[in-house]
Amino acid sequence: MKFDTPATNNPIDQLKVIGHPTDRIDGPLKTTGTAPYAYERHDVVAHQAYGYVVGAAIAKGRIAGMDLSKAKAEPGVLAVVTADNAGKLKKADRNTAKLLGGPEIEHYHQAIALVVAETFEEARAAAMLIAVDYVPAGGAFDLAAAKGSAKKSEPSFGGPADTAAGDFAGAFAAAPVKLDETYSTPDQAHAMMEPHASIAAWDGDRLTVWTSNQMIDWGRDDMAKTLGIAKDKVHLISPYVGGGFGGKLWVRADALLAALGARAAKRPVKVALPRPLIFNNTTHRPATIQRIRIGASPDGKITAIGHESWSGDLPDGGPETAVGQTRLLYAGANRMTAMRLATLDLPEGNAMRAPGEAPGMMALEIAVDEMAEKLKLDPIEFRILNDTAVDPEHPKRPFSQRHFAECLRIGAEHFGWRKRNASPGKTREGRFLIGTGVAAAFRNNLVLASGARVRLDNRGVVTVETDMTDIGTGSYTIIGQTAAEMMGVPLERVVVRLGDSAYPVSAGSGGQFGANSSTAGVYAACVKLRDAVARKLGFNSADAIFADGTVHSGNRSVPLAEAAGERGLEAEDKIEFGDLDKKYQQSTFGAHFVEVGVDVATAEIRVRRMLAVCAAGRILNPKSARSQVIGAMTMGVGAALMEELVVDKRRGFFVNHDLAGYEVPVHADIPHQEVIFLDETDPMSSPMKAKGVGELGICGVGAAVANAIYNATGIRVRDYPITLDKLIDRMPAV
Amino acid sequence: MAKVSFNVNGESRALDLDTRTTLLDALREHLLLTGSKKGCDHGQCGACTVMVNGRRINSCLTLAVMHEGDAITTIEGLGMPGHLHPLQQAFIKHDGYQCGYCTPGQIVSAVAVLDEIKAGIPSHVSADLNAIPQVAEAELRERMSGNICRCGAYSNIVDAITEVAGSKG
Amino acid sequence: MKPFTYERAQSPAEAAAAAARIAGAKFIAGGTNLLDLMKLEIETPAHLIDVNGLKLDTIEATAEGGLRIGALARNTDLAADPRVRRNYGLLSRALLAGASGQLRNKATTAGNLLQRTRCPYFYDTNQPCNKRQPGSGCAAIGGFSRQHAVLGVSENCIATQPSDMAVAMMALDATVETVRADGATRKIPIADFYRAPADTPETETVLAPGELILAVTLPKPVGGKHIYHKVRDRASYAFALVSVGAIVQRDGSGRAALGGVAHKPWRIAAAEAEMPRGAKAVAERLLAGATPTHENAFKLPLVERTLAAVLSDARA
User: Fold this and answer.
1) From CA A288, how far away is CA A290, in angstroms rounded?
2) pLDDT tens, A410-434?
3) Cα separation of A591 and A380, whole Å?
4) Which chains touch A (3 or more CB pairs under 8 A)?
5) Would you say A508 and A217 are in contact if contact means Cβ atoms under 8 Å apart?
6) From CA C4, how far away is CA A202, in angstroms rounded?
7) Exposed, middle or buried, A6 (CB in 10 Å: 0-12/13-18/19+)?
8) What is the pLDDT of residue B169?
9) Phi/psi at A549 (nearest 5 deg)?
10) CB of A70 within 8 Å of any CB in chain C?
11) Among A407, A436, A471, which Cα is nearest to A624's?
12) Are strands A569-577 and A2-3 parallel, antiparallel or unpaired?
C-alpha cells in the first residue's frame, strides 16, 4: 500500500480497540519471567556451548602476538576464535569499527577473541589466560582538544553539515539582545538491562541466530555481509529484547562471535557480552560541544539563531547531529547550523535514544531559558512568541500538525507555573532550595516502509507476523490492537508474532518510527485480508463491515471463522510512504515541566515533580505510550544529573564501565511522573494518524532540569551532567 | 565439582556443580529457570533478585554451593500465567515494566520489600529509626532502589506496589 | 574466575588454621564483594573457606554495657536490631545508607569492614594499580579521581575505603575481635585496623594471613544525637562522595568521622575538640594536610558544608 495522500476515514477511526489503555498482551510472560530472551533459549537447539569474549586492553595500536596455548589447554575448552583464525570477514557499513579486532586495534575493549567451552565458568576462566602482546599507538581521545581539527561531516540522516537561511551574521550582529554561549554534553551509555546476547547455530551453510536486536532485516544484511554468506542463509530471531535505546540497532560482537564460535566448535554457541565490557565494546552517544547564538528584538522576537555542534568519532564514523531541531523549532528569518566532526579513537559513537535531538535540546533549551531571562520574558511566553506554523527555512512548507504552544499552555496550567517565583534562589523549603523549569520537547517524525502478514484461521483467530521488534515499546500490544480493530475481533482473538526474519520486513524499532510505521504496515496487510474475505464471500469490499467477529454486508452476516474456511485466508502487504513527509514537516512536540530541590548545604539535586505534555498524533495505546514517555523522562533525568562516560584522556577509554560506575537513575531518583497527551490525529503521517513518543519524551527533559536548578539556585551550569561539584562553590553560605 | 541440594519453588533439587557456579547460573543454566535475569553479574542492577529463606538477595553474588538446604523462591515460584501473584497482576495493570528484563527482579524484590516493612525493618528514609515503618511512596522508592529499570518504569512500579500493599491492609 | 576448592568451616579456630595452612585460601561469608572481584580475577583464591555455618551471627549485650556483634551478623539484621536502633543510631543509619536491600541481606559485619576500594582502575585488570598489582603504578593519579581520597594518600595509591558502616564503627570506637591460625584471639581498636597506603597499598588492614574476624564490639552507648549524612549524586544505591558520621551531645561536644575521603574512615581527636565551635573549625582540623586532585577538590568544601548541615540537624 502506498501512502501518498492524506489519510481519510478508515476502520482505525472506529477506536473500538485502538486508543484504549489496554494492558500489554505480553504482560503475563514478562511478569512471570517466562518471556524468552536471547541467551535463555535452551529450548531451540541442543548442545549449546558457552562463549566468552576477550576485549582489547589498549585503545589503539596493534597486536604483535597472541598466545592461545594456555587457554586452549584449559579443561572444557572447545575452540578459541581470533581474527587470525576466523577466516575472511568483511565489515558491514553500519559498523564503524570491526566487531572482531586484530591485528589492528581500533578502540578499547574491541573484541579480539572468543573462547568457547563446555561451561560458562570454563570459558570465562580460559579467556583470562589468553596472553596478548600489544604495540600501543597514540590516539586522540579529547574532544575539546580535537575540536580545532574537526571537519565537515558527510550529510547524514540528521541533515547536511551546514545550513543557512537569510543573513545570520548580519542579523546577530545587529540584534539588540543577544546570547552567545557554549554548552557541553558528555558521552552516554544506553545501559539497557539485557546485555547484548546471542545463540548461533549452523545447519550446513545456514545460520540461525537467536539474538537481541532492534532491526531484524538490517541485522540479517549485516550478518551476511560480515560473514560473506548469502542473506537468505541467515535467520535472525529476536522476539524479546531487554531494552535497546539504539544500542541494539546493529549486529554487535556477541552475534558475530557466536556465529564464528559455533563454526569453530561445530556446535551451537551462546555469547553474552559481560557488563564491564559493554560500555567500551559497543556503541555510545557521543559527547558534544555546542555553541548557540540567539539574537532578538527587545520585544522578544528572534531575529537570528545559530547552532554549531562539535562531536567526535572513529575514522569513517558520523557526527552527533545535535543541531537538527534548531532548524525547525523556533521562528526567525536569519539562521544557521553547522556540525563538525573530529576524529577520536574512543569507542564507536552512534545512535542513542533521540540521537541528535536529545543532546541538542539539552543545550538549546537552556539557551532559550537564558535568552528569555535577558529579555525579561517568561520562558513559556518567549517560546510561544517565537512559535512558527511553517518550516522556518522554507516558509511555504507547513508543519503537518504543530500544537507546541498548546503543550506549553496546558502544561503551565496543570503544573501551577503561575505560582513560580521567576527570581532565582528565592524559594526555600527546609534544607532545600526549590526551583521549577520548563523546556520544549521536539522530535521529528520519521516514517519507514513496513510489512506484515495476516492470517485468519477457521476459528476466527487472526495471526499477525512481522519482523518488527518489541524492545519494551509495546509493539506486541499495539500491533494486536491494530489487527483487532481492522478485522473486527476482540484483542484476545489476535496472535502477534514478532522479531523473526522469516516474517515480512518491518520498520523495526528505532527513531520513534516503529509504532506508527509498523502498525501502518499491519493496517495495509489487514486491508488486503479484508478484501480477500469480502471477495471470498462475494461481498463488495467497500461496504463490508468487520465487527464482533463477523463480516456484514447489506443484510448478510458471516462469522469470520466461517468466512476463513477450513484452510483459512492469508494476506501480506507493506506500507510504503510517498512524499507527504517532504511536503509537510512532520514533527512531534511537547513541553517538559520539572521541579527540583537542591540541598542548600551539599548541593545534592533531587527531582520532586515532573510533567510532560505531548502532541504526537494519535496515541495508539495511552498506557504503553505513557510508559514510553515516563521512561524517557527518567533517562532525561539521568542525562541531566548523573550520566557521563568518563574519558581517561591519557589511556583512551571510558573508565566507569560498569553499572556501579556509570550511574543511571534508581527508584529513589524519580518522583511520581505525569503525562498529558493532546488529542491529536495526524492524517499526513500514516493511515494510523499516529506518530512516535518514545524519543519525544527525552528531548528537553535535561534542559528542564537544568533550568529548574537555575531557578532554585541562581547557578547556571552549561556542562552536563549537573553534579553537585559544579554548584558547590557558588552555593549560599550554610 | 561439588554437590549441593536445595529447594527451589517448593521442589528439592540436587546438583553437581563447578564450585564457581553462581546461584544465578545454577538457576538459569542448570535448572533452566531463566526468569531470574543476568543484567550485570556484579550486584549492580538487581535483575537477578531471588529470595533465599524468605530474604531477597542478588543471586549473581553468591555461589550455588553455599546454599545447601536453603529454600529458594524465584519469580517462577511466585506465579505463572493463569495464576499470577497479586504483584504480577498489579505490574500488568499499572504497566510497571517495558522491556521486561528487570521485571522479575523488581517483582521478587517488591514481595520482599512488603515483608521487610511488615517485619519493621527501617530504611534510609525512615524518619524515626525506632518507629514502625509505613508503606509510603518514599519508603518504597528507597527500598526498591537496588532494582534498576533502564526503561524507567519506576513511577508505575511504585503505583503497582502501593496498590497491592493497600489491598493487604 | 579461577578454579578453587571449597570447604565449609567447622569452627572459627579450624577455619583460621586452614586459611593459614592452605596456599591461596580465603574466607567467604556474604560474598558480595569477594565474588564480584573473583569474577574479574582481581581476587584469585585457590581455596574458599565458607564461614557462614559458624554461628557468628549473634548480637549480644556485653558485661560492660556495650554490644558484641558477631562477624556474620548481616547488615540488615544489624541495622534493624532494636538495641542498635535505640543506642547506636549512627550505625543503623550508616548501614541503611549503604548498598541495596538485597546486598544488605547478604553482606556481613566483618565483610563490610573488609570491603575493598571501588576505584575504577582497581576494577580494570588492564590498567596499572598498585593495590591490585604492586609496582604496576597508579592510573587514578592524573586520571579519573573524582571519587578518590583527599587525605592519607600516598604517591602509590589514592583509593578510598567505601564502607559506610566503618565510618559509624570508627565514630563509635568499635573493637575488632579476631582469631589467628594458632587459635590466639586479639582485640584491635578500629582506629588501628586500617593501614595507610604508603608503599604497600595492597595491604589494607593489620590482619595477619588467615586471621578471622569473630566479632565487632561496641562500648557502652554514649547517648547524644546520632547522624549519618551521606552525600552522593544518585539518591540511593551509590557510594559516598563524602559522608559524615557524627554523635553530638547537648552541650555541642561530640564525635565526627568522615567517609569517602581516605583509605579509612577519617577521625581526628583534635577536630572533635572543636565541635562546639562549629563546622568550619572542625573541618579545618579534619582536612588539615589534605591533598586533593583537580577532580576531587570539591570534597573539601563539601565536607565542611555537610558537617554544617549535620551540626545544624543535631541542634534541631
Assistant:
1) 6
2) 999 999 999 999 999 999 999 999 9
3) 9
4) B, C
5) yes
6) 35
7) middle
8) 44
9) 75, 15
10) no
11) A471
12) parallel
The residues of A that are catalytic are 695
pLDDT digits (tens, 9 = 90+) for C73-115: 999 999 999 999 999 999 999 999 999 999 999 999 999 999 9
Ranges of beta strands (E only) in chain C are 5-8, 25-28, 47-50, 59-61, 67-70, 175-179, 185-189, 212-218, 225-231, 242-248, 254-259
| Angstrom distance (rounded) from CA A435 to CA A420 | 8
The one-letter code for the residue type at C220 is K
d(CA A337, CA A466): 39
DSSP category for residue C254: E
DSSP type of residue A155: P
Give CA separation, A452 vs A221, A233, A491, A573, B51, in Å: 19, 21, 17, 6, 42
Beta strands in A297-420 (DSSP E): 302-313, 334-343, 390-391, 394-398
- Taken in order A192, A195, A201, A202, the sign of the CA dihedral is positive
Residue-level pLDDT at A158:
75
- Residue A568 is classified by DSSP as -
- Is the model's pTM score more than 0.80? yes
For C200, counting Cβ atoms within 10 Å of its Cβ (0-12 exposed, 13-18 middle, 19+ buried), the class is: middle
C-alpha cell at B109: 524484590
Distance from CA of B96 to the nearest CA of A (A): 8
- Grid cell for residue A480: 494486536
- Alpha-carbon torsion A84, A90, A94, A96, what sign? positive
What is the ipTM, given to two decimal places? 0.98
Q: How is residue C44 written as a grid cell?
A: 584469585
Distances A639 to A184, A275, A361 between C-alpha atoms, Å: 12, 20, 12
Nearest Cα of chain C lies from the Cα of A664 at a distance, in angstroms, of 8
Distances (CA, A) of A456 to A479, A527, B62: 15, 13, 50
Q: What mean pLDDT do residues B43-47 have?
A: 98
Q: What are phi and psi of A159, to 5 degrees?
A: 105, 180
Name the percent of chain A in helix, strand, coil, to the closest 5: 30, 30, 45
Regarding beta strands A269-272 and A49-55, do their DSSP bridges make them parallel or antiparallel, or are they unpaired?
parallel
CB A239 within 8 A of CB A475: no
Q: What is the pLDDT of residue C149?
A: 98
Which residue of B lies nearest to A660 if distances are taken between CA atoms?
B44
Query: Whats the size of chain A, residue-wise?
Result: 734
Q: Which of B19, B129, B146 sits opposite C4 (nearest CB)?
A: B19
Let me know: does A608 contact A689? Beta carbons within 8 Å: no
Which residue ranges of chain A lie beneath pLDDT 70?
none
Q: Which residues in C have their CB inside 8 Å of a CB on B?
A: 1, 3-6, 8, 28, 31-32, 35-36, 39, 48, 50, 52, 76, 79-80, 82, 85-86, 89, 92-93, 96-97, 99-103, 105-106, 235-237
Place of cell 567451552: A117
Q: Which of A262, A254, A301, A302 is nearest to A281 (CA)?
A: A254
pLDDT above 70 coverage of chain B, percent: 99
DSSP readout, A415-435?
HTGGG--SSTT--EETTEEEE
CA–CA separation, C111 and C103 (whole Å)? 12
Joined together, the cell numbers standing for residue A533 give 474475505
* Three-state DSSP string of C44-65: CCCEEEECCCCCCCCEEECCCC
Q: What is the pLDDT of residue B158?
A: 98
User: Within its chain, how far is the Cα of A405 from the centroid?
Assistant: 26
Contact in structure between C275 and C252 (CB atoms under 8 Å): yes
C-alpha cell of residue A89: 570477514
